[in-house]
Write a structure and sequence with these properties.
Length: about 90
């Protein structure tokens, strides 16, 4: 039986509401190991004991999210898009 380790990250922006957000997290076999709190800029371990066995520098996740944001801005500039109206 194999195991699955997932690293997931995303950045999103709602131009209408002028809000942005994102997520950076690690998951093992369907259970979260940790995520990075982007507002507090720190690693949040699902179980505090996990942090006793290993470390993760939140700065690396913040750099990845900054790259995601930059890439989204490039894609938005290159695409033919218009803001939706409600």
């Amino acid at each position: 039986v194999g195991h699955t380790l997932i690293q997931a990250e995303f950045y999103q922006r709602d131009e209408r509401l002028q809000q942005e957000g994102g997520e950076y997290m690690f998951d093992f076999d369907g259970g979260e190991i940790f995520h990075v709190d982007l507002q507090k800029t720190e690693t949040a371990w699902r179980l505090p004991e996990f942090g006793e066995f290993t470390t993760f520098e939140a700065q690396g996740a913040l750099q990845n999210i900054a790259i995601d944001k930059h890439n989204l801005e490039i894609l938005m500039k290159r695409s033919n898009r218009s803001q939706a109206t409600t």
